[in-house]
Design a protein that fits this description.
mainly alpha; 3 helices
Length: 80
C-alpha cells in the first residue's frame, strides 16, 4: 500500500513539473510575441531599451553560471 502511494505521488509530481514548465515556456513565448507584434518598443528611447536588454541578458547569463557553480535554484541565482 505504501509503495502504491509513493508511486502516485511521484506521478503527480512529474505531471506538475511538466505542467509548470509548459506554462513557463508559454508565458515567455507570449511576452516575446507581444514585444514583436506591438509597437511598445517604439515608445521607449533607443539607448534605454538597449541598456535594459543588455542588462537582462547579463543577469540571465550570470544566473546560469551561478546555478551551475553553486547548488542554487535559478531564481536565487538571479537574486544574487
Amino acid at each position: 500500500m505504501n509503495l502504491r502511494k509513493r508511486s502516485s505521488m511521484n506521478d503527480r509530481t512529474t505531471v506538475l513539473r511538466a505542467a509548470s514548465r509548459i506554462l513557463l515556456y508559454l508565458g515567455v513565448g507570449l511576452v516575446l510575441a507581444g514585444f514583436l507584434y506591438t509597437d511598445i518598443l517604439e515608445w521607449l528611447p533607443d539607448d534605454l531599451t538597449e541598456d535594459i536588454i543588455r542588462l537582462s541578458l547579463y543577469t540571465a547569463a550570470a544566473g546560469v553560471v551561478l546555478r551551475f557553480l553553486y547548488p542554487l535554484r535559478y531564481a536565487n541565482a538571479l537574486l544574487l
